[in-house]
Amino acid sequence: MNLLAFAAAGGEGGIASATVLILIGAAAFSLPLIAGRFRVPAIVLEILFGLVIGPEILGIVSLESIDAEFIEVLAELGLFLLMFLAGFEVDFERLERQGVGPVAFALLVIGLSAGIGWFLFGLTADTIEQQVFLTLLTAAASLGIVVPALRSTRRSSTALGQSTIVIAVLAEFLSTALIVIFGVYVNSGFGVGLLRVPALFVIMWVLLLLIRRAAWWFPERFERLFQTGDPDELGIRTSLALMLVFVGIAQLLEIEGLLGAFMAGALFAFIFRNTGELEERISGFAYGFFIPIFFINVGVRFPLSELYDTNVLLSALGLIGIAIIMKLIPAMLLVFRRLSPREALASGVLLAGQLSVIIALAGFGVTLGVIDEGLAAGATLLVAVTAVLSPVVFRLLAPPLDAKVDEHA
Description:
By secondary structure, this protein is an all-alpha fold. Helix content is 73%, strand content 0%. The model is unreliable at 3-14 (pLDDT under 50).
């Protein structure tokens, strides 16, 4: 159920059962602690938890119950926050510092990755739309895996670290933006409807420029947005208001709200370069509760029974295999950036790791009708497999450097 429609309807049936509230509260608190103990990403356990309480196993939450609707409403807000932060974490200053050469090389690597994916998915996809979508989906990368792994091995400032980060930033940004734009094409085709995307971009750009101009004229008022210790948390309030306004504008233009949330974060990060600790505060708010519920909801709705079908399982495994291949092969081009073959392979392994955004985008693909639940389940399995293995294999290929090496990019 759409978040805004659910709120307008007053919840259509009241609040979720006490049992579900207790379970969600306990899970949101305890799962990150358990994940840290076993050194696995928290989202893996959150998805597993949702699967266990969902209809496929224990059946505590059924898809037709008010509990499921309650979880879905919170999950949709978590999804918008997830996409907002995905845009917010695009480091435009880093891209500008790198200059044209490294960015162009990163685009070459991403283009080759997409080309390999296009060819391989052309052998398995049912339609051209599915081929396009899966290519864009698996071309993405996850900064949530790349940056922590590089920092933990003190390689952020090395040639390996800098090259990998630039590729990951561009891959995540381009993949997300192009998928949602592709969604507009699927719904509207080539025509006037496709102009809604640049119209949305222009509206967002103008609004943010007006905000920036206001900040220029009234700096003392806007300083509160980026200050820590503000009892009113004006920075978080403004960011959330901006996100919801842009989601609403996107929906008024009949564009998926995901693009509104993502572009709100990206444009905010582009116009306001020095955000201080605002991103960390928003991340703490979002990842502390709402985004975990999104992943619990993914688990509740995970079509486990469909994987019993051999064809569906093979399709899911094929998706995982192609997604990994299309990162490992192009990464070997990094030998031309003065990396050893072992380091280039390590970069490819790290870029193959996926986290939260790909699950959100796969769900969007199901909504569009270009992929089925089986392939979406494959995307979820891809996250579960690569999120756990990618950092481990990377550490084997690129062991930690001496502590004296500067780890800050």
